[in-house]
């Protein structure tokens, strides 16, 4: 363990400022879901199904928009890519409180699509502003900050909605998000290793990949395909068009390897596991008529994640993210044996310890696997994978709880997490065996 790395990181003014700006930028949207749900129920007088639909529509918009927003950062640079989000945030969330429910749904979907790409920008910037073990500590710090935000944001949102008004809260979300975007533009942190403020430099393998991408992108359509097969310029036009489209797809998604897919699967599994655990905690306490003690359980669960993140960022070892998720999934299951609020809080601590480390390790792995020219888009897909897992986790675990009782929710959440990990490991093993089979066939 080397906790001095945190001290060295926080001494760097530009990095500390980036983490603070990231905290400000993430805070509004940690509260947006709760505010939107309560606005539909309390202000518009609709039922909880309508409220859940509105939150789901916003989530789908975020999942679809994240890769596109990240790709804009890669292609156009940070400042130009942020402008549409800054404008959309204040317009959307300033308009939503004054709309009827039928108009609210498409507008919150647009708001989700144009959500400020804070996640991808911060992880891109941290990836080039740090290197080696320092990068691990930086990602751990970011995970800890995120944990703090999601411990306080929803609670503050509920307070504003019930004590002030949902209209004020939703408008504040737009103003705060746009203001955070302006702060991010003003700081303009580097997203490429050749920009001012970057520390890391592309290694030889990354430079080789960049050179290959440039060659492939510049190659005339009639010269060669990516695999080296010659394209028959005199062949049938449909065949040429198919091959040309195939080359474009490979250039477009050439960064998507088996290892990258495994990391995305890990992110989806983490989202599924966290959402399922969340539902399980609420269901167990509701069955015991102890919903008022929910805060104590979440304090233990999230507090353990903070401690785990600090320990992970100080360690010199780097366990694969899929193994961290596997361990977190297994450690979630014992919570089904909780008999009261204190035992539930205690049994949530072991899995909580691995939450921030799993997310930090997965982000670090994406940074290593994906060329920085595509990293913004990759981080966007990473965020979308986690969002998709979160969207699936709650209803799937809810079905099990309805059928088998509240304690079974933890078994379902942990079991689903284990299945995702096993699928990711199997995909990686198959990918590793493929070159061996090809070599054997060639012999």
Automatic annotation (TrEMBL):
<dbReference type="InterPro" id="IPR011701">
    <property type="entry name" value="MFS"/>
</dbReference>
<keyword id="KW-0472">Membrane</keyword>
<feature type="transmembrane region" description="Helical">
    <location>
        <begin position="407"/>
        <end position="427"/>
    </location>
</feature>
<feature type="transmembrane region" description="Helical">
    <location>
        <begin position="321"/>
        <end position="338"/>
    </location>
</feature>
<feature type="transmembrane region" description="Helical">
    <location>
        <begin position="103"/>
        <end position="122"/>
    </location>
</feature>
<protein>
    <submittedName>
        <fullName>MFS transporter</fullName>
    </submittedName>
</protein>
<feature type="transmembrane region" description="Helical">
    <location>
        <begin position="167"/>
        <end position="186"/>
    </location>
</feature>
<feature type="transmembrane region" description="Helical">
    <location>
        <begin position="49"/>
        <end position="68"/>
    </location>
</feature>
<keyword id="KW-1133">Transmembrane helix</keyword>
<feature type="transmembrane region" description="Helical">
    <location>
        <begin position="382"/>
        <end position="401"/>
    </location>
</feature>
<feature type="transmembrane region" description="Helical">
    <location>
        <begin position="294"/>
        <end position="314"/>
    </location>
</feature>
<feature type="transmembrane region" description="Helical">
    <location>
        <begin position="253"/>
        <end position="274"/>
    </location>
</feature>
<feature type="transmembrane region" description="Helical">
    <location>
        <begin position="80"/>
        <end position="97"/>
    </location>
</feature>
<dbReference type="GO" id="GO:0022857">
    <property type="term" value="F:transmembrane transporter activity"/>
</dbReference>
<keyword id="KW-0812">Transmembrane</keyword>
<feature type="transmembrane region" description="Helical">
    <location>
        <begin position="344"/>
        <end position="362"/>
    </location>
</feature>
<dbReference type="Pfam" id="PF07690">
    <property type="entry name" value="MFS_1"/>
</dbReference>
<dbReference type="InterPro" id="IPR036259">
    <property type="entry name" value="MFS_trans_sf"/>
</dbReference>
<feature type="transmembrane region" description="Helical">
    <location>
        <begin position="143"/>
        <end position="161"/>
    </location>
</feature>
């Amino acid at each position: 363990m080397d906790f001095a790395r945190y001290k060295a990181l926080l001494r760097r003014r530009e990095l500390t400022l980036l983490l603070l700006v990231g905290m400000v930028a993430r805070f509004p949207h940690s509260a947006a879901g709760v505010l939107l749900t309560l606005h539909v129920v309390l202000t518009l007088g609709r039922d909880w199904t309508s409220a859940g639909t509105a939150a789901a529509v916003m989530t789908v918009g975020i999942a679809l928009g994240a890769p596109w927003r990240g790709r804009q950062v890669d292609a156009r640079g940070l400042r130009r890519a942020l402008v549409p989000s800054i404008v959309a945030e204040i317009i959307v969330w300033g308009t939503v409180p004054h709309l009827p429910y039928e108009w609210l749904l498409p507008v919150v979907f647009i708001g989700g699509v144009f959500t400020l790409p804070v996640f991808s920008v911060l992880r891109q910037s941290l990836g080039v502003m740090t290197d080696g073990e320092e990068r691990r500590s930086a990602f751990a710090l970011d995970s800890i900050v995120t944990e703090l935000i999601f411990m306080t944001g929803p609670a503050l949102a509920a307070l504003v909605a019930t004590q002030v008004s949902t209209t004020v809260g939703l408008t504040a979300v737009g103003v705060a998000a746009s203001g955070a975007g302006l702060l991010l533009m003003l700081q303009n942190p580097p997203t490429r290793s050749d920009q001012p403020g970057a520390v890391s430099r592309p290694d030889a393998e990354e430079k080789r990949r960049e050179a290959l991408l440039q060659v492939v992108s510049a190659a005339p359509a009639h010269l060669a395909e990516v695999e080296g097969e010659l394209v028959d310029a005199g062949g049938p036009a449909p065949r040429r068009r198919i091959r040309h489209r195939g080359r474009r797809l490979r250039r477009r998604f050439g960064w998507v390897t088996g290892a990258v897919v495994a990391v995305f699967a890990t992110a989806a599994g983490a989202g599924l596991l966290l959402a399922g655990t969340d539902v399980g905690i609420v269901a167990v306490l509701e069955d015991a008529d102890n919903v008022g003690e929910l805060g104590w359980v979440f304090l233990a669960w999230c507090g353990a994640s903070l401690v785990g993140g600090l320990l992970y960022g100080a360690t010199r070892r780097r366990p694969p993210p899929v193994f961290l998720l596997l361990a977190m999934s297994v450690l979630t299951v014992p919570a089904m044996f909780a008999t009261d609020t204190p035992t539930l809080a205690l049994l949530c601590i072991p899995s909580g310890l691995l939450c921030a480390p799993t997310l930090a390790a997965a982000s670090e792995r994406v940074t290593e696997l994906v060329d920085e020219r595509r990293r913004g888009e990759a981080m966007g897909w990473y965020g979308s994978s986690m969002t998709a897992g979160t969207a699936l986790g709650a209803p799937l675990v809810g079905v099990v709880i309805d059928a088998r009782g509240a304690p079974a929710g933890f078994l379902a959440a942990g079991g689903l997490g284990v299945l995702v990990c096993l699928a990711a490991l199997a995909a990686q093993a198959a990918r590793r065996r493929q070159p061996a089979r090809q070599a054997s066939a060639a012999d």
